[in-house]
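Deliverable D5.2: sample structural annotation.
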Amino acid sequence: MGAISDKYVNEFGRVPTAYEFFSVLKRGGQSVFTKRETDFILKAIEFAQMHTEEALETGARNAHIVQDWNGNTDSEYVDYVIHKPSILNAYPTENIK
């Protein structure tokens, strides 16, 4: 994970929910939100869902299968694996602004 998410994973033991994330930012972790704040959080959730779906679909479309010889030259031992960078780099973070 990236440095930003590591900070919150260390605190929660996992990536926090939107409500947990915003409660950390609000007055020392209070989880009581005004209607306006709740509406903002719901829009943030919608925004995150939209980008998550698009990132997953883009990653699936761009996934490449490559040969992994595992140091063997005998074609009998070749494995076919998904090229992880082809998925992880498919959806640029610049799209999330």
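Annotation notes: The first strand starts at residue 64 and ends at 68. The first helix runs from residue 3 to 12.
The annotation will be released with the project's public dataset once the embargo ends.
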